[in-house]
Amino acid sequence: MDKTVSILICGVGGQGILLASEVISGVCLKAGYDVRQSEVHGMAQRGGSVISHIRFGGKVYSPLIDPGTADFVVSFELLETLRYMHFAHEGSTFITNTQRILPVAVASGAVDYPKDILVRLRALPVQVIALDAFSEAKALGDARMVNMILVGALSELLPFGGELWREVLERRLPAKILPANMKAFDVGRAFVKKK
Amino acid sequence: MKEKDTVGASIVLSGNEAIAQGAYEAGVAVASGYPGTPSSEILAELSRYGGIYTEWAPNEKVALEVVLGASFAGTRAMATMKHVGLNVAADPLFTAAYTGVLGGLVIVNADDPDMHSSQNEQDNRHYALAAKLPMLEPSDAAEAKLFLKQAFHYSELFDTPVILRVTTRVCHVRGIVKIESRETLSITPGIQRMPEKFVMLPGNARKRRRDMELRIQQLKKHAETCPENRIEWGDKKRGFITSGISYLYVKEAFPEASILKLGMVWPLPDDLIKKFAGSIDEVIVVEELDPYLETHVRALGVSCKGKELISPVGELSAASVRKAVLGPVGQQSIFDAVPLPQRPPTLCPGCPHRALFYVLSKLDVFVTGDIGCYTLGALPPLSAMDTCVCMGAGIGNAHGIEKALGVENTIGKVVAVIGDSTFFHSGITGLVNIVYNKGCSTVIVLDNRTTGMTGHQHHPSTGRTISGEKTKEIDIAALCSALGVEHVVTVNPNDLEKTEAVIRLEVNRREPSVVIAQAPCVLLPDMKALASGTRVISRTENCKGCKACLRLGCPAIEWLPWSDEQIPQGSKQKGISCINASLCYGCGQCAVLCKFGAITRTEAIDG
To answer: Are B42 and B13 in contact (CB under 8 A)?
Structure first.
């Protein structure tokens, strides 16, 4: 694959976006691609809007995805999907968690949470996969596994076999939480496969 | 302890992890630094390697002095810090350029263009020029490791400290890095008396100053042919001179163009620049922040374009470089930008700082602030910070306001706040100044038992070293008392009423006072365990819609507005507050504020 594939991951600080990004870039490496992944730390992370850029291909230069060039937008929160949708292009695939995390200005009643986000997304020339990863993760015993469900969903759409993903997960995750996270990964993967 | 990666393996590492690996491979013996985004993970990561002494110093000046000592003792040593940290360490930096080194000495300096987590975006390449220190600038993780090792080599070869300059998009970008083995070094460490080199009395310094000129000439010559500087010939109609992360943006935007990639950004290779420019019709200098390279290129008499095209503000990208050079091209996005609620960073649910800032907001005092998570207390609805300049500044600011306006006009109206780690970094001297110069400011130390913002690093009063070993726990209260502060009070900020009473009393004193607002960061592992037993329950039937709880600005408290049909006839109530159980930590600050029993706490945190 000479063409560089760009995956934008967005959400809210604390949702496990960095770990998800690490897993994805680890798989890209294992599959033999050049890969760059960019994220932010520090103040930017504290409950704020967070994005991570992943680009893989034969040879990747810029670690940042330019607006209009993301092939995949994986969003951990509904409003954040809308915030970063300009990174996508016609034909991009959106994988979005339908969970809503209220920004403080919304929680305190100062402004409203935007309505009909999915309707707006679906009106665009893109593929939209929406799933309630938060409820699924809670049902599996830990809401923090939202990230692995979404990684699982994305995995089904990338040209790497399931074994490669499991290998990287085994290496990257602590043994204690591995089985549950593996299950979460499979739930996400199965969700997309079904579609 | 870290499980070492196999030599020869290619793995994905962040720039910071690659620098730690590079330090290991370079045979570094001593590393010191102070946490600061985007540099923090370097030292944290290196501390997990066995056999290398690492430490968090109280500030960057101390860190640089420590590693300079290690170099004097003949070992390889490294200091890490963010860009503004180098301001703090600038004093030893400029004279270390005179002493030179015995063991290789590298200062890793991380700039933060676009201020992702900083108060300014100064361009620290100027430090290399000003201090006359060679500076290498890698573009990615693999180069960061390579250049760091090279920097140690140059340090010993040219008898000089070397600066490795990285930026956020080098530190926090992951890329493929090949693991190599640890070097065996030829220098024998030991105490060596070399006063003409180490004692910078004017007589010795004057001689060293002349030696430096010699070294600079050697370095200039070296820069012309060193592997860090290279020309990638391509289309000669347009050629770019660039360095660091900007090189990757140029490569992405103009893969066919000729590029002069400068990996050593001081001293610069004059002949190489002229040779490159001589073969190119249109030379464009692409660099983030200041026209540092451009100024040099122009001074050589080379005509080029630079900052008239490329913004001196913030980060670049492939798209911004393309647009700057070619003008707006390509199709517009098919997605209309829509105005959305902002999602700025916030204090976490359960954060003890929130309680303290709630009290300060209520007391309506002017708060001279500082650098840390708690700077978020400046944001609405708390809006309880009025200045924020640099580490330690809040204490000096409060004193200055008092001296400018006179104590009659400031008593009870001004307080300084500073974090615990920040207090050790550069707060102590400000407090000494207040005591010595008969000030009567109140300083609130927000003691959350960690360095929160940068990822929970230990500091002098956490009782643990960087590697988690037990150590002396420096007592902030005893320290303040020893400085001559006669009123030192420790409160738990989660106890809102007591905190308010204490601050009210202390700010009105005509003597210096210190309030230590002590409650651990809720993200610390021990605290997470503690929290699991606590619940805050909202009994929404009791809620009167007064919004008192919303003044905390806690992400876990949500306002549910009623529709017109839901509002009872004649009622002024417009909705109810509700606790989002999935976000709530259980601190109970809101339960204290609720006068109607709509929010209650089921179990005390310490119960």
So the answer is: no
The pLDDT tens digits of the residues spanning B44-89 come to 999 999 899 999 999 999 999 999 999 999 999 999 999 999 999 9
> How far apart are the C-alpha atoms of A169 and A181, rounded to whole Å?
8
B33 touches B399 (CB < 8 A): no
Touching check for A100 and chain B: CB below 8 Å? no
Predicted structure pTM score: 0.96
Q: Give the Cα separation of B525 and A161 in Å (integer).
A: 36
Residue in A41, A68, A112 nearest the CB of B333: A68
Beta bridge partners of B387: B368
A46 touches chain B (CB under 8 A): yes
List the single range of A161-175, B322-336, B555-569, B582-596 with lowest mean pLDDT. Answer: B322-336
Other beta carbons within 10 Å of B447 = 23
Q: Find the length of chain B.
A: 607
Tell me if chain A has a CB within 8 Å of the CB of B38.
yes
Find which of A6, A33, A49, A61 to mutate to test the B interface (most B CBs within 10 Å of its CB).
A61
Chain A contact probe: residue of B248, B334, B370 with most A CBs at under 10 A: B334
Strand B173-178 to A34-38 pairing: antiparallel
Count how many Cα atoms sit within 13 Å of the Cα of residue A99 in the half-sphere of its side chain. 26
ipTM of this predicted complex? 0.94
Q: Is the pLDDT score of A40 beyond 90?
A: no
CB-based contact A189:A151 (threshold 8 Å): no
Query: Cα separation of A158 and A178, whole Å?
Result: 22
> Cβ–Cβ of A43/B317 closer than 8 Å?
no
Question: CB–CB of A143 and B40 under 8 A?
Answer: no
Question: Taking CB atoms and an 8 Å cutoff, what residues of chain B touch A105?
Answer: 341-342
CB contact at 8 A, B85 and B64: no
Q: What is the pLDDT of residue A47?
A: 80
Chain A residues close to B245, C-beta within 8 Å? 63
Lowest mean pLDDT among B125-134, B402-411, B495-504, B574-583: B574-583
What CA dihedral angle connects A156, A162, A168 and A170, to 10 degrees?
A: 120
Residues of A in Cβ contact (< 8 Å) with B116: 40-44
CA separation for the pair B485, B432 (Å, rounded): 9
pLDDT mean across residues, chain B: 95
Q: Please identify among residues 6-35 of chain B the ones whose CB lies closer than 8 Å to any CB of chain A.
A: 10-12
Q: How much is the average pLDDT of B460-473?
A: 96
Pairing verdict, β B264-266 and B135-136: antiparallel
**A150 burial via Cβ count (<10 Å: 0-12, 13-18, 19+):** buried
Kindly list the distances between the CA atom of residue B124 and the CA atoms of A141, B137, B279, B314, in Å, as whole numbers in the listed order. Answer: 48, 11, 30, 14
B599 touches B591 (CB < 8 A): yes
